[in-house]
Write a structure and sequence with these properties.
- This protein is an alpha/beta fold.
- It has helices at about 40-50, 75-80, 90-105; strands at about 1-5, 30-35, 55-60, 85-90, 125, 130.
- The strands form two sheets. Strands 1-2-3-4 form a four-stranded parallel sheet, with helices on both faces. A two-stranded antiparallel ribbon has the order 5-6.
- Helix 2 links the parallel strand 3 (about 55-60) and strand 4.
Length: about 140
């Protein structure tokens, strides 16, 4: 399920730059936050530490359809500390999602690789590059 951080004072905007209260434990939750004021990695780390299972970052700049990569400047070693899938969406999609969530809290997120990538075991390589699998 997708939600906006329940601790946000105005109820519609969350930047995800500060530590958050624990995610509701009812089911797996994805958190919608806005781009800005802190690195993407900090947003992902805060969401991960609060127990969210995914992160959606909405752009805040009109006309910008892409946002920078959300990986850590610390490289792969730092990225492996937070196992949280994250996606970036444009301003219009972010506004539409927030509007929907203001009236209907039943929105569920389903993610699918397109094109679907072949499942490979640890340290195998294909046309998409080397796959390194880590588990905790």
């Amino acid at each position: 399920r997708v939600i906006i951080d329940p601790a946000v004072a105005n109820g519609t905007r969350s930047l995800g730059c500060s530590p958050m209260a624990s995610a509701p434990r009812v089911e797996n939750m994805a958190l919608l936050v806005e781009r800005g004021l802190c690195p993407f990695r900090q947003k992902a780390t805060n969401a991960f530490n609060a127990g969210y299972k995914a992160l959606i970052v909405a752009n805040t700049v009109s006309g910008a359809s892409k946002v920078p990569d959300m990986t850590s400047p610390g490289g792969v070693a730092e990225d492996q500390l937070v196992e949280l899938p994250a996606w970036a969406i444009d301003l219009a999609a972010g506004q539409a999602l927030r509007n929907w969530l203001a009236t209907d809290h039943s929105l569920r997120l389903q993610v699918e690789d397109s094109p679907r990538r072949t499942h490979l075991g640890p340290f195998q390589e294909d046309a998409y590059g080397l796959r390194t699998v880590y588990s905790q």
